[in-house]
Design goal:
The protein is an alpha+beta fold. The protein is built from 16 helices and 19 strands. Helix 15 runs antiparallel to helix 16. It is found in: Periplasm. InterPro entries: Peptide/Ni-bd, SBP_5, SBP_5_dom, TAT_signal.
């Protein structure tokens, strides 16, 4: 207990005091009714929805595009661009497509645009980081005036859940301007359209007055890149921001006494984990990876950093996802055994690189650095902006760092969208390879038998437990700070839909 108290004191020392700034309620109310200002941890890495799917990018571009299907507030998959669907057989899914949706350039959204969007994201030439979540799809075609048919290699139980994330893009625009220009000037059919994107500074969206679902609540939405958490909180308190994302539990506790603001939170399907590079550097040795697992005191991390806003997990998955199992136990906290394993591996005093960005909790990085230092590893933390972090994390193993913090959500609530892209050989995220693991996750995604799928995932997690290419820490809770006038309920899939928000003075 003394160690935990000491760690907590160490982590909180040096944090910038949150001092309320001057605030004019009249100004904030008037501005927020027309302009919603959101502070994000990072600038979007992309506005092309078929490329990156990190939190800050998705938060912005999800408001520019409509998806094939979506989830309601309860998590149920419901229509959006598709008005309905049915299975013709185990590998054939037929969608009815709405005929009343218009892109921002005034052209109609058609079934051909849906087919183009599906074929584009599964095209290996696009090099989408999302490819592994759609690679069971073998084809899509227009099969009627308002109908699209999608075929899969085998029965694919997570197909609809994955298609929740599929944004529909206009074929004519993408082909005319090319992928690079489309990322700079995206055209969607969503409630907001891009007005300006100042890289590293802010992204401004303006209302789509002809949106098919009705009038969006704000004239403009400005997403600002504010890497420093205390600055985001100060912006909220001063009325310079209406919503701030990526708050820590300490921030949330500090804000609860503020009359002008509120804390909004929701347990998510997002899992907080450490990625451990099994293909390069000192962590290529499984004994080093196992030592790292035993050097991490998860209970201390949760107690010192999360303040009740998290629950420990046994693996790199949360109980909100199909496939989670409590039959595979995590590595115990055992610093003595960790030191012995490092000595056996000849890795005492080795230096390992921990890559990170402002999108991740700095204090967790430092806590892990301290814990690994106590067992004899030197941890060098390398901070970089989110786009650079993603390029390195998805790149070759030699430049991906030995460790990185992750907060992974597939928005599909299925293990297929988590451990398949993170650890399956061939994925750009995977810094690990094991044919036995590959066989289990491949089998789990190709049968509709839920009992068989659960058995495959249990065996897959048993393999991951021994190989340690990742260490599950806790089920993440999304925490937002907002002005008191904002009416909005966050959801488990972290869908930041401005369309669902209201301003009530």
């Amino acid at each position: 207990m003394f160690r935990r108290s000491l760690l907590r004191t160490t982590l909180l020392t040096g944090l910038v005091p949150l001092v309320p700034a001057a605030f004019s309620p009249a100004r904030a109310q008037a501005a927020a009714k027309e302009e919603l200002v959101v502070d994000l941890a990072s600038d979007p890495a992309t506005l092309d929805p078929h490329l990156q799917w990190n939190t800050d990018s998705y938060t912005v571009y999800r408001n520019i595009f409509d998806n094939l299907v979506t989830r309601d507030g309860t998590g149920k998959i419901v229509p959006q661009v598709a008005s309905g669907w049915k299975y013709a057989d185990d590998t054939t899914l037929v969608f009815d497509i709405r005929s009343d949706i218009t892109f921002h350039d005034g052209t109609k959204l058609t079934p051909a645009d849906v087919v183009f969007s599906i074929l584009r994201i599964i095209d290996p030439a696009l090099k989408s980081p999302q490819l592994s979540q759609y690679d069971q799809i073998t084809g899509a075609e227009v099969t009627g005036a308002s109908q699209v048919t999608v075929k899969t290699k085998t029965a694919y139980p997570a197909l609809l859940a994955q298609l929740v994330k599929l944004s529909i893009v206009p074929e004519a625009v993408v082909k005319r301007v090319g992928n690079g220009d489309f990322n700079q000037n995206p055209v969607g059919s969503g409630p907001y359209k891009l007005k300006a994107w100042q890289r590293g500074v802010q992204t401004v969206l303006e209302r789509n007055d002809t949106y098919w679902r009705g009038k969006p609540p704000f004239r403009t939405v400005t997403f600002r890149a504010v890497p420093d958490v205390p600055t985001r909180v100060a912006d909220l308190r001063a009325g310079r921001a209406d919503i701030v994302t990526g708050l820590t539990p300490d921030d949330a506790e500090a804000l609860k006494s503020e009359r002008a603001v509120q804390v909004l939170s929701a347990p998510t399907e997002r899992v907080a984990y450490l990625s451990v590079n099994a293909l390069a550097g000192p962590t290529k040795d499984v004994r080093v990876r196992q030592a790292i697992a035993m050097a991490i005191d998860r209970d201390t991390l949760i107690e010192a950093l999360q303040q009740g806003y998290a629950k420990p997990v046994n693996e790199v998955l949360t109980p909100a996802n199909f496939g989670y199992t409590d039959k595979v136990q995590p590595w115990p906290y055992d610093p003595a055994k960790a030191r012995a394993l490092l000595k056996e591996a000849g890795a005492e005093g080795a230096t390992i690189t921990f890559i990170s960005s402002p999108s991740y909790d700095r204090r967790l990085n430092e806590a892990v650095q301290q814990m690994l230092g106590e067992v004899g590893l030197k941890v060098s933390i390398e901070m970089m902006d989110q786009p650079t972090f993603l390029r390195r994390r998805q790149g070759d193993p030699e430049n991906a760092g030995a460790l990185s913090q992750g907060r992974w959500s597939c928005a599909c609530q299925d293990a297929d969208g988590v451990i398949f892209p993170l650890f399956r050989s061939g994925s750009i995220w995977a810094k690990y390879g094991n044919p036995e693991f590959d066989r289990e996750v491949d089998a789990a995604r190709s049968t509709l038998d839920e009992a068989a799928r659960k058995a495959h995932y249990e065996r897959a997690f048993a393999i991951l437990r021994e190989d340690v290419p990742g260490i599950g820490l806790f089920q993440d809770v999304a925490i937002y700070g907002a002005r008191r006038e904002i009416k909005w309920q966050p959801t488990a899939n972290e869908a930041f839909f401005v369309m669902d928000m209201q301003w009530q003075a």
